[in-house]
Amino acid sequence: MFSQFKYVKAQTIDEVLTYLGDRDRCVKILAGGTDLMVLMQRNLETPDCLIDIKGIEEMKRLDFVQGVGLFVGASVTVNQVTESKIILEKYQALGQAAKTLASYQLRNRATLVGNVCNASPGADLAGPLLIFEANVHIASLDGRRVLPLAQFFTGPKKTVLAANELVTGISLPDLSSGDQSLYLKQARVKGHDLGIVGVAMRLTLDQKFLVALSAVAPTPIRLLELEEFLNAHPRTPELATKAGEMVQKLIHPISDVRASAEYRLLIAGVLVKRAVTLLTTREAN
Amino acid sequence: MPEKLFRHVGKSPTRSEAIEKVSGRANYVFDLEFPGMLYAKVLHSPYAHAEILSVDLSEAKALTGVKAILTGEDLPYLLGLYMLDKGILARGKVRYIGEPVVAVAAIDLRTAEKAISLIKVDYKVLPAVLTIDEALKGEILVHKDINDLEYVKNVFFPQPDSNIASWNKAIKGDIKQGFAEADVIIENELSLPAVAHVPLETHVAIAKADPFTKRVEIWTSSQSPFGVRQMLAKALGISQGDVRVVVPHIGGGFGGKAGIHLEPLVVVLSRAARGKPVKIIATREEEFSQLPSRAAMRGRVKTGVKYDGKITASEITFDWDSGAYADYGVNVGRAAQYSGAGAYEIPNLEINSRTLYTNKVYSTAYRGFGHLETHWVIERQMDLIAQALKMDPYEFRMKNILREGSVTISGEIINQYSGRPDQCLAAVAKEIGWTGYRSKEEREVSFKTGKVRGKGIACLQKAPAMPSNTATSALLQFDADGNVRVMIGAIDMGQGAMTVMEQIAAEVLDMPLEKVRVSSETDTDKNPYDWSTVASKYTFMGGKAVTRGAMDMLSQMKEVASQILRCPVDELTHGQEKIFIRQNPHKAVSYQDIAMGYLYDNGNSIGGPIIGRGVYIAEGLTFLDPDKGQGLPALDWTFGAHGVELEVDVETGEVQILKISSAFDVGKAINPKLCEGQIIGGVLQGLGSAFMEGFKFSAEGRLLNPSFMDYKIPTSQDIPTIVVPILIENPQADGPFGARGVGEHPMISVPSVIANALYDALGINFYELPLSSEKIALAIARSEAEHKEPLSE
Fold it and tell me: Which residues of A touch B696 (CB under 8 A)?
């Protein structure tokens, strides 16, 4: 790492936004730093200025309001997510996914918002956030906006964020009790690894399926067609098998150093089938 | 000697350096800093094969804080263990992506890195040799000067105008006749990719060159301080006495630190920087893509057998994709020459083992070198033959396994002291409850549950791969209070050499263990000579040297005691830290009173400091006949076997090892806990090769997975449910207390036993490593599609 950068530990969001608004500087937000530091170490990112947001009170918010939902501030770590009782109870898929993200040590630093902003096609937390219809809270000197997560990703490592914008947090609507969800991930090893395919699936109290996949497309994706199929058909034992076959027609994964497209397709089918089976049998019980 | 008479041997004291290490106080080269020290970085080749047209250093030289910059043109030195084929930096030509081209020493890492980014190199890209077949074709030569390279003659056989760094052959009997006698001939091809050693501590070295003399001092994370000293002196044209190499604690080696690697580079940088100390630390990415790996290999095997399961002939070709420089690679190829048919008696045999130059990161020794690779071919072939004969692979192995009176492929006769591979195989088969392959019907029933189980077995053998004159030495000295300090030349990189040598010295001297200490730092200026800490040979050889050194102390003490006690030496014996008269044990003199010389009441003194000297040089080894590979290459064979039971998820291809049992005939376990530690560690490392490890290259020869993001090694969650080490003890007559080495062996045949068990589970044979979940799941899917029924017989 040979970039020389200014380090600022911001106290307020406005302070961060002022730095981000400075067009003459290359400013990077430092939350967990688990992606940024690797890039800087390899000189792939050479920012002039790092703004640490971990000192800002609003960013540390992790709270749930009955009837409104959950808010996860931008400096909330993944381990905080795995330890949140409300997340483990209500937003099960998110809690499960958080537990599979990297290693315990990295989860101590890595943040939920960082996982989303990094916009990796394989981001473990993106699938669960998509099925909970999360919203991204964005701020800049021009004002604030809230965007559905489904509109946030634009490509591998690309988002709609402008250079002067900051994600302050992510919110999830409240769920009725009895809402069931899960996250299944296949990796190359059982320990600490990136997912080859991640499947997040939810069955709402009013019997609607929501499905999202990671690592099978340029961005994490919701599979609306598969959801329609699942919602339109009776809960027979064959439903899971058919869903597994259908997902293979809906996605077009690539081959890379981690897995072949062929294996990704196969695994997507297996995990979708298993997810449907698990949710519907859990339902029946 | 009956077991109960041993005081320390066969016991399991905790490793002597354990507290120092776990409390974080142990010093590694990583920790060392010297006043005024500079930091080095290198510029790597971006091309697999290219001519260096020009190097522009002007901007880098102008950078404040840069103290030295060197290119290959400044360094007309050639290095190599067996073939002098490698410069300190690339000269004229680059031969792999990652090869160091320019080196910078600067006041800090950031400045060195910045300077590297300012260097401009013009290359003319050349077509590259990236596969075994391209290498064999020889249309493009990795080393155009192969005919002129200096090498160790009659041991290695580079072929003129080719990419063959060495072609080693073994011929026994007459394979034509052997195949004519066979009822069935089975041919297969198996292969495995290059893998990395992944030591916890990457390569790191510091050098300080005296600007006024030829003297250089080096601190390095190395397995071979004396090897570094010898090769560096030769390359630089200075005497070995001009080179001091110090090795403090090292964070793992696995063979990757057995040669000479970063040491020459920091030496020349320190010289260029007027003697300032220079440190270089390989990053994890450099550890993968610049420093050597284990070679990829392709094995083609053809075996003739009788219907009753007797092997009549075997013809095996091993082709090693060994990368840009020979390093240890040629010796890996040579190991296949005398051990490449496994622990079996083969009456008629031909082995051709070719170490090939390719334009990829070069290869070196890796734990049990050559053996995990050749046993991947042999132990899979043994199962494939058994399948063809419809015979239990256990029974088939037992029909051909080496026994007393068998003749090995290099002509050695196995005797009652050679160890018992059959007992190892029997022990693991019993431990996993082996009853033969499951039937097709049994497979089909369990397949429907989504999880299928299978069992497998495999054997292995290995002898130390080393020159026939390999030697070691030990010095034992008393402190005035009667404690003993032992100095050895070996490196303890986690295997427990220091502890085992303490046990042996304390045993021979009949002393409390805590009064004997082996010093943990090896310094070529002070420690006695050892060839290199490799090859699972140190317990054997070092054990002999330390035994002799301790006996030397005893005989010196008896000489002195004979005067004090007025008794002939042959009436004296020792025990409880005393020399005494056998008939009158109360007539005794303590070690402490003799340690520094004996003082009489009147002030007279005799004797003097007791210094024990023990040496060992390999006994009876010969060069191998160049045409047929016949001779005695093996100091001692350690035989072993693995048995495994595993469970496969038939949809995802994931495997869980339910139990793996590994037995080794160690002769005598000097420290059973350390032997078991080696077995568990080696098995886990072998599982990495079996399931997940392997270099992937782009079409241009770029390593695609040079980091832990995409080069996976087993984690705590990937380990077997149960690992059962079994120690079998048929003593080696000439080993210390009967012991043989077992450091490397546990890794060998682990991939083979896994693939054999996968066949039992799935009815599918695998021929390429690694056995990733992906490979297994896709093979199951294909097999289902082809057969419309899940499992073939």
Answer: 257
Helices vs strands, H then E, count in chain A: 11, 14
Last residue of a domain, one of B587, B617, B647: B617
Where residue B97 sits, what CATH number does that domain have?
Answer: 3.90.1170.50
Q: Where are the beta strands (DSSP E) in B507-654?
A: 516-518, 522-523, 572-575, 578-581, 588-590, 596-599, 605-609, 611-617, 638-649
How far apart CA B149 and CA B166 sit, in angstroms, is 12
Active site amino acids of B? 744
Cα–Cα distance between B617 and B638 in angstroms, integer? Answer: 19
Give the pLDDT confidence score for residue A1 in this predicted structure: 67
Does residue A208 belong to the interface with chain B, where contact is any CB pair within 8 Å? no
Please indicate whether, in this complex, the C-beta atoms of A189 and B718 are within 8 angstroms of each other: yes
Residues B607-626 have pLDDT tens digits of 999 999 999 999 999 999 99
- Three-state secondary structure call for residue B55: strand
Say yes or no: B95 and B213 in one domain. yes
Which of B596, B600, B593, B599 lies closest to B608 in space, CA to CA? B596
Lookup result for tokens 């039971």? B645
pLDDT at A42: 87
Which residues make beta-bridge pairs with B190? Answer: B299
Burial class (CB in 10 A: 0-12, 13-18, 19+), A54: middle
Q: Which residues pair with B475 in a beta bridge?
A: B487, B613
Classify residue B650: in a domain, yes or no: yes
pLDDT mean over B594-609: 97
Are residues B338 and B228 both part of a single domain? no
> Which residues in chain A are closer than 8 Å to B692, comparing Cβ atoms?
188-189
Give B156-186 as a 3 state SS string.
CCCCCCCCEEEEEEEEECCHHHHHHHCCEEE
Residue A2 to residue B113, Cβ atoms within 8 A? yes
Backbone φ and ψ for B686, nearest 5 degrees, come out as -65, -35
A266 vs B contacts (CB less than 8 Å):
651, 777-778, 781
* Predicted structure pTM score: 0.96
Interface test with B, best of A34, A266, A276, A278 (most B CBs within 10 A): A266
d(CA B750, CA B758): 12
**A18 pLDDT above the threshold of 80:** yes
DSSP H helices, B190-325, are 225-236, 263-272, 284-289
Starting at the earlier edge strand, list the strands of the sheet with B93-94: B93-94, B50-56, B120-125
Same domain assignment for residues B492 and B359: no
Query: Rounded CA gap, A115 and A72, in Å?
Result: 12
Contact in structure between B619 and B540 (CB atoms under 8 Å): no
Give chain B's contact residues with A (Cβ, < 8 Å): 110, 113-114, 117, 651-652, 654, 691-692, 696, 704-705, 709-710, 712, 714-718, 772-774, 777-778, 781
CB-based contact, A60 to chain B, within 8 Å: no
State the amino acid at position A283 in one-letter form: E
Task: Tell me which residue of B274, B318, B280, B283 sits closest to B298, measured CA to CA.
Answer: B318
What is the pLDDT of chain A when averaged over all its residues? Answer: 96
CB of B217 closer than 8 Å to CB of B483: no
Q: Which domain holds residue B690?
A: 296-466+623-787
Predicted complex ipTM: 0.96
Tell me whether residue B364 is in a domain: yes
**Chain A positions in Cβ-Cβ contact with residue B716 (cut-off 8 Å):** 191
Domains detected in chain A: 6-52 (3.30.43.10), 57-173 (3.30.465.10)
**Closest CA in chain A for residue B771:** A188
Q: In 3-state terms, what secondary structure has residue A173?
A: strand
Whether B176 is covered by a domain: the verdict is no
Which of B780, B761, B763, B704 has its CA nearest to residue B97? B704
